[in-house]
């Protein structure tokens, strides 16, 4: 298996790289190494082929896909942003980059994709009315309720506080911010690509991931998360029958799930315990060069 991981220097992406290497796969990473996200050089197993570049650059992506069998697309702009003025940056890094990647995959005849999505596509999630027990779409939370410690939203019709319910994969998509909207768009782009090319795609809707290598406070907190739910899209080849786990892609994703971590295991392992080498300065024919100061 020859795997390309976009955003492979990130929190989740780096664990995917580890799991793929443990299975004996050949791994290539493409990552922009944004200094805001990577203030220090990342550590990588020397077996990994590292490409520094932006997924929005068609030439970089096309070169990075050479000889690849499967793509695990983890790179994205995450979080809520400062204001709606950040919308173009979300669309560029999430939707436009995905379109560039999918177009290049078609040119290279690569037919298997694992996409990092998010539970934010469901919006507030599922709620029921406290009186009738019927499903109800929550309205916006009121500032007065939050100040009073009432965190569940209210029924916009009755004003009653709603009761949280389980979110199923059949729940309607209800993106309520730019990041969520960009994730829904990524899923739809992948679905269109799969139908058009006869390929296989799976979206992993991450939810509240933490563990070794997670972003530290003061760097940039990110609402990334572990695979909680995934569904094959109409027109996409499916293997397996589970509705709540990505078994539909087990033949090519089971080795790419982030390793389990304990609730207490939130610190990265010591550097000497890793068979990795630090990247301090890199220049490749695929992208730009990046150099970090020595600490």
Describe it.
The chain is α/β, with parallel strands linked by helices. It folds into two domains: 2-122 and 168-291, 3-Layer(aba) Sandwich (Rossmann fold); 126-166, no CATH class. The protein has six helices and 13 strands. It has helices at residues 11-22, 58-64, 87-107, 143-147, 178-197, 250-253; strands at 2-6, 26-31, 43-44, 49-52, 70-73, 112-118, 126-128, 163-165, 200-208, 225-232, 277-278, 281-282, 290-291. The strands form four sheets. A seven-stranded mixed β-sheet has the order 4-2-1-5-6-9-10, sandwiched between helices. It has a two-stranded antiparallel ribbon with strand order 3-11. α1 (11-22) links the parallel β1 (2-6) and β2. The longest helix has 21 residues, at 87-107. The chain is elongated, with a radius of gyration of 20 Å.
Outline:
The chain is an alpha/beta fold. It folds into two domains: about 1-120 and about 170-290, Rossmann fold (3-Layer(aba) Sandwich); about 125-165, no CATH class. The chain has helices at about 10-20, 60-65, 85-105, 145, 180-195, 250-255; strands at about 1-5, 25-30, 45, 50, 70-75, 110-120, 125-130, 165, 200-210, 225-230, 275-280, 280, 290.
Task: Provide key terms for this protein.
Rossmann fold; seven-stranded mixed beta sheet; 6 helices; 23% helix; alpha/beta; elongated; 2 domains; 295 residues
Strand line-up in the sheet with most strands: 4-2-1-5-6-9-10
Proportion of beta-strand residues: 15-25%
Main sheet record: 7 strands, mixed
What's the shape?
Answer: elongated
> For this structure, what is the CATH homologous superfamily of the largest domain?
NAD(P)-binding Rossmann-like Domain
Extract low-pLDDT stretches: 218-295
The quaternary structure here is single chain
Query: How many strand segments?
Result: 13
CATH level 3 topology of the largest domain: Rossmann fold
Radius of gyration: 20 Å
């Amino acid at each position: 298996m020859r795997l390309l991981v976009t955003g492979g220097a990130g929190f989740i992406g780096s664990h995917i790289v580890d799991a793929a290497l443990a299975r004996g796969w050949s791994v290539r990473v493409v990552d922009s190494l944004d200094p805001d996200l990577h203030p220090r050089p990342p550590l990588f197993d020397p077996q990994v082929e590292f490409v520094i570049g932006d997924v929005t650059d068609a030439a970089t992506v096309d070169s990075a896909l050479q000889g690849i069998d499967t793509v695990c697309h983890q790179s994205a702009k995450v979080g809520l942003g400062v204001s709606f003025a950040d919308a173009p940056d979300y669309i560029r890094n999430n939707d436009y980059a995905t379109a560039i990647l999918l177009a290049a995959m078609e040119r290279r005849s690569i037919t298997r994709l694992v996409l990092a999505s998010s539970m934010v596509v469901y919006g507030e999630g599922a709620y029921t009315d406290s009186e009738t027990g019927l499903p109800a779409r929550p309205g916006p939370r009121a500032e007065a309720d939050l100040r009073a410690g009432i965190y569940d939203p209210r029924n916009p019709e009755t004003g009653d506080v709603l009761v949280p319910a389980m979110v199923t994969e059949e729940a309607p998509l209800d993106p309520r911010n730019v990041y969520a909207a960009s994730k829904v768009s990524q899923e739809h782009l992948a679905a269109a690509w799969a139908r058009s090319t006869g390929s296989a795609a799976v979206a992993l809707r991450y939810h509240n991931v933490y563990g070794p290598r997670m972003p530290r406070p003061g760097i940039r907190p990110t609402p990334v998360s572990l695979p909680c739910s995934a569904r094959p899209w109409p027109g996409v080849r499916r293997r397996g029958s589970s509705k709540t786990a990505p078994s539909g892609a087990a033949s090519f994703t089971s080795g790419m799930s982030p390793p389990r971590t304990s609730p207490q295991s939130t610190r990265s392992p010591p550097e000497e315990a890793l068979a990795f080498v630090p990247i301090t300065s890199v220049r490749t024919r695929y992208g730009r060069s990046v150099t970090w100061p020595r600490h």
